[in-house]
Each structure stands twice: as C-alpha cells, then as structure tokens.
Write the structure tokens for this entry.
Amino acid sequence: MREVSQPATEAIRLVEVLRAMADPVRLEIVQRLAVTGEEPCNAIGGDLDVHQTTLSHHYRVLREAGVTWTTVQGRTRLVRLRRDDLDAVFPGLLDSVLNGARHLGAAARG
C-alpha cells in the first residue's frame, strides 16, 4: 500500500479547507465519507452524476487541501476524511460544516 502526496497536518490551511468543501460535489463526498469512514473512489463516484475526470479533480482538491487522505492499494484508491488532523488544527470545524450541510439539506427537502 502506498500513499499519494498530501499535506502534513501542520501545513493544512483554513482557507484551502473551506474552499475545498465549498463546492457541492466535494461537500457531498465529505458528507459520505463522514458516514462510511473510508471508501474506494469509484464507490463514491458511482452515486454522483459527475464525469470521471471531473470526479478525479474533486478528489485531488480535497486531498491537496488536507480534507481527505488517499491510499493506493493496487489499482484502487481508498479515500478517508482526515478528521483527527482537521480537529487538531481547527477544532469543531468539520462537525460544524457537516451539521450545516445536513441542516440545509433538510430545509431543501421541505
């Protein structure tokens, strides 16, 4: 198993994290990972109506911002949230974003 290049915990920047999660598709990926813990990229992407190349871009933005951690096993890329790292650097941020997204989703459903 190998890891893809991603920032160290101390290199994670608030502006980059917020920018990464501001996109609806990326926020949906983050929400799903918050529930499942870790998934192959293709499992998450199968539920989103996004072209594969666009989805790869979204994964890269999340990884480079320090929101997710990607591990490569053979031909499979496993993605998980960097919850511990994000909570260490920005306590409560991830939970606040996820709670806000849930609240907006519930309001949109009526």
